[in-house]
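Case study 2.
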Amino acid sequence: GSGIVVEAGSTGMLSVMDLTFGGWGDYAVDASGGALVVQGCQGGGTGTAVRLAQGTQSASLDKNRNLSVEAHSSVDAYTGSNTYAAKTDAEILPDYGICPQAAGSALLNGLDYGADKTGAEDSTTAVQNALNAASAAGGGIVYLPAGLYWVGSPLQIPTGVELRGVAESGHHTNNLGTVLMSTNGQGNPSAAAFITLQSGAGIRGLTIWYPNQNKWNTPAAFPSTIRGAGQNVWVVNVTVAGGTQGVDLSADAGGHYLEFYCGFSFQNNITVDNASAAGRLINLHFNPHFYMRS
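Prediction:
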């Protein structure tokens, strides 16, 4: 007999992860129906470990070692990077990729364009002017020193430009640093996103806070905090407190790179869809206390 059997006619899914099969009879896993996921497993027996018989709807086998597979030609099967006998621990580590970078060498300070780090005046125009100047210079970084910046309208990050704050790692909202206070689109969740990243644009080292959010009552609705409008966008060391929809990558934002994106949004923290190239989501942290302690 076999260790695990998915019977013919099944419409469910069996998921087997991080398991060691010490030995088996006919097969370790014998599927004749339903869907099957086998990931991060290894085998210690001989002979065919996994059989995907006719009737299996789909199967995904990835990052396994010493698990040979017999698949009927009718089965929609993905076998990923399996080589069954040749993988080493080093070889099966995840591919973290490389974060895209600003295209040019311009380095501009938003304060030089009139941004107000006390939060008393709306800094939208000043910050956008700095971003546009960096784009006109061939790309680069617009730096905002630590402070509170009221930004009441949407920002567009042009191709080749990064908007950067002071945070050099993932951080909590109560660490302050470079804080953008967003009042953009309150009550209109279908309005333009607070920050739109054009292809090859990114943000880094920022905290985004919604000061008008209702902490103890029904949450106010806001549009997306960050939207990727093209490929190869990045969001690194950014924390969001109290938005409705966090990062929207539902356009063709393949090649995206999110690392240490943290916080809490009331509806969706991240939406990914329609990507035509692989992206990376690394070290993400979401918890209501990112908002409640802001």
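Confidence is low (pLDDT under 50) at residues 82-93.
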